[in-house]
Design a protein that fits this description.
By secondary structure, the protein is mostly helical. It has one domain. The protein is built from 5 helices and no strands. The chain starts with a helix and ends in a 7-residue tail after the last helix.
Amino acid sequence: MGKATQRREKREAGRLQVLAEQNQERFLKEWRSRIDGWAMEIKARTRAEGDETVLPSERQPIFGVLEKAERLLDQCGDQARNLVGADTRRILQNECCKAVASLTDRRLYRLSNNESNYVLMKSGNHRSQR
């Protein structure tokens, strides 16, 4: 990650931290919008992963979106994490697991065992059937 990206993330985290402390309703609205954006990014990365015309070096890890969200949430502070931390992790883990399963074998994904799906798919121990 470049320096400009780090500065942008830090500035954005500071702004979100102030929102979480002073205007929780506005913070929640903005955070929901970010979750929607991250979900779309997961879908875009999934399409790129399944597209044989995209070079492997140009593909980005699907679970990288979850890591990006967690990194931003960590920078936002405890107030923000208490407000949206658990839901953010659950929603984005769910989307990432669905995406990986759609590329390998849809039978891998079950909503009822999401945590075990996350461990399996994050470790890379799944095999593609393509």
